[in-house]
Amino acid sequence: MTDTLYLGDYTYSSWSLRGWLLMVRFGLPFDPVRVDFSEGPVADQLTVIPPARTVPCLVTADGAVIWDSLAIAEELASRHPDAGLWPLDPIARATARSIAAEMHASFGALRSDCPMNLQTGYADVAPSDAVLADVARIETLWAHARTRFGDGGPWLFGAYTAADAFYAPVAARIAGYGLPVSSTAQDYVAAHLADPAFRRWRAMGIAKAEHLARYDRPFRQIGWPGPTPLPARAIETGTPENDLCPYSGKPITHLMNIDGRVFGFCNAFCRDKTVADPLAWPAFAALFDGKGRSTPDRTPSRIPDRS
């Protein structure tokens, strides 16, 4: 048995993104279960794992139920001490935990005024003084960590840690709403948007193509500010270069065209998440580059909806 991670919507659920990154970025195996936000209250959908009522929620193989993101990070660090969730240096580790905890408990104006939406960017946003104060404090935290512990790397503590996972949705908000930050902070935001794991999460949201109007904001919509994926499209007919799905190893049923080449997948979701951002997926990137099938992605080819 492996751990099970209950997750919400890929486009809008910032806390689910954090939980997913904590597993994927540190190579921890898990079985995901998707909770559909359009099917009613999350708490009602989690009655099978009491006392959970929010996502993400991690149910460990030995039966522990962990329904808080910071608790998930700490429990994973305890159970997988060699995974590197927190920095090894005691002072850096204490700082990383403090920075993550402040994110966990603070920045209410940024959260309420600028909900995460990974499918669009907004222009002509006039942030409130409260949002600007939140962003200023975030910049202070980022600058402190990167100056003292960053060691020239792109992340807060040089290598990617749980603290970066906690700030990934914050970076998405800053980018998506065009909030004013320094060039140094912009570099950190850009590192998140270019991170292949972040891009895979976003690609799954594009593949699901769900729209929850309650998260919309009344600003002019523009394109997503992250890296532009390699263009690809779904097709109905063609002869694929591969014999089996690069993710599951199952027979091909759905096709994609990219740069005049045809590739096949075992279901529509496998195809559509790849169409959304082809080179974000290591297994497909290896196939596309002619290196054959790589080690399967830790993200499963289909994340099941909970019924």
Report on this structure.
This is Glutathione S-transferase. The protein is of the alpha+beta class and 307 residues long. The C terminus is likely disordered. It folds into three domains: 77 residues, Glutaredoxin (3-Layer(aba) Sandwich), CATH 3.40.30.10; 110 residues, Glutathione S-transferase Yfyf (Class Pi), Chain A, domain 2 (Up-down Bundle); 68 residues, no CATH class. The strands form three sheets. Strands 2-1-3-4 form a four-stranded mixed sheet. The relative contact order is 0.13.
- Let me know the number of strands: 9
Number of domain units: 3
CATH class of the largest domain equals Mainly Alpha
Point out poorly predicted stretches. Answer: 293-307
Do you know the CATH topology of the largest domain? Glutathione S-transferase Yfyf (Class Pi), Chain A, domain 2
Q: Characterize the quaternary organization of these chains.
A: single chain
Characterize the main sheet: 4 strands, mixed
CATH architectural group of the largest domain: Up-down Bundle
